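Bump. Still looking for Peptide/nickel transport system permease protein C-alpha cells.
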Amino acid sequence: MVMFFVRRLLTSSLVVLVSTFVMYVLVSIAIDPLFDLRQSTSPNKEQLIEQRRQSLQLDESVFHRYFDWLGGAAGCVVGNCDLGSNWQTNQQVTDLLSGAILTTLQLVSLATVLAILIGVFIGIVSALRQYSGFDYSITFVSFLLYSLPTFWVAVLLKQFLAIGFNDFLADPSIAWWFYVICVVLAGLTLMAALGGSTKNRLRNFAIAGGATLVVLLYVELTDFISDPTLGIVGVAVLSIGTALCVTILSTGLSDRRSLYAALTVAGLGIVLYQPMRYFWYYAGANWLIVIGMGVLAVLVGALVGFLWGGPDRSTVVRTAALTAVPVSLYLFLDRLFSTWDVYVNHVRISGRPISTSGRRTPNFEGNFWMETLDLFGHLLLPTLTLTLISFAAYTRYARASTLEVLNQDYIRTARAKGLTERTVIMRHAFRNALIPLASIVPVDIITLIGGAVITERIFGWRGMGFLFADSLEKNVIDPIMAYLLVVAILAVVANFVADLVYAVLDPRIRVNA
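Sorry for the wait, here they are.
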C-alpha cells in the first residue's frame, strides 16, 4: 500500500506539472494583457505599454514566466503559497481563490447530492421497469434534460419559477386545474413505477392521487405558502413516514427490530420538538452548531439501533442512523420556517424571496435564520439548474449499470432460492450496480469545486467558474492558472479516490504495488 501511494503521488505530480505547463503556454497565447492599451488614445500610450511589459515580464519567454510562476506555486507545499496577483485590482490570487472556493462549494454541494440521490434512485426504478411506460418516460425526460443548454434552463427557471412564483405570492390561491394535474400526475407516476396487475395499478393510482390531494388541500387550507410551518403534527407525520420508508428500503418491514428502532428514532424527534425550539431560542444558532446537532442525531440513532440489537445488529444500527438524518432535518426546517413571515416582509426582500442573481441580498441584515433563508432563496435557481442537468446523466448511468447486474447469474440464483424481490435488489443488485458509478461520482463531486462556469455567470455567483471566466475576459493570467492548478490537483485526487471506492465496493479489486 505504501508503494502504491508513493507511485501514485509521483505520477500525479508529473501529470499536474505537465498539464499546468501546457495550459500556461496556451493561455499566454490566448490572452493579450496589452489589449486595453492598444485601443487607448492616450498621448503616452507607448510609455504605458512599455511599463506594463516590464511589470508583467512580457519581454521574457513564456518558459521563463512559467517557471517563475511555478516557483511561487511550489511554495504551497511548505505552506507559503504565492500564486501571483490580479494586476488590475492588486489583489492576491490566494485571497481571491479562498473566497471563490467557498462560494462554489455552497453552490454545487446541494445540487450534486440531490442529482446523485435522485438520479440513482430513478435510474434503478427505471431499470426494474424496463420497457414499461415509466421507463420510456424517464428515458425521454433524461435525454431531453441532458441535451438542453444550461443557459436556456436557467433563463426558463428565472422567468417561471422566480418571477412567476414571486408574483404568485402576492395572491397565493391554487386553481382547480392545478389540483387535477397534480393528482393525475402523481397517480400515474406511482402506478407506472410499481406496475403489477390492473387491480394493483388502480390501487396505487388511488393512493398516490389521494395523498397528493390531501397535501394540496392542507397547503390551501392552512395558508402554507404564505406562512409555511410544519408544526408538531407535520414533524410527526413526516418522521413516522420516513421511518417506514427507510425500513422498507433497508431491511423490509418483516425485520421488526429495525422497524421498531426506526420508529423509536421518529418518536424521539417528536418528543424533542418543543425542547429543540427552546434550545434554538436560548442557545442561538450558527452552522457549526447545526452541523454538530446533525452529527449528534446520527450518533443517537446509531445508539438506539444498537440497544435494540438482535442477531443482525449492524442492519438495525444502519436503519436507525439513516432515519435520524431526515428526522433532525425536519426539526431544523420547522424552526427555519418560523422566520419566513419576518424574512419575506423585510424591507430588502419586499415579498419577493426567490432571487435571480447574486449570492446575498445587498445590505441585508438579520439573525442566523433570516440569513439562512436569504441564502436558500439565492441558491434555489442555480441548484435546480445544476440538479436537472446532472440528474439526467446519473439516471442513465444507474439504469445501464442496474440492467447489467440484473442479468447476472447470481441474481437468477438469488431469485431461485426464494428470496424476496426487495432482498434481491437491495442486498444483491444495488451494491454491485454502484460499482461502475464509483469511477464517475467521485470525479464529479471533487472536480465540481472547479465551478460551474455558465451557471455562475448567469446567476452572478462569484465562485471558481466566475473567477476563471472573468479573468480570461480581462486577460489576467495568474487567477486563470490558479484555477487550472486547483482543477488539475482535484482531478488526480478524484481519480485516486475513485480507485479506492472501487476497491471497497468490489472485493475482487486489490491494490497492487
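The first helix runs from residue 2 to 30.

Edit: fixed formatting.
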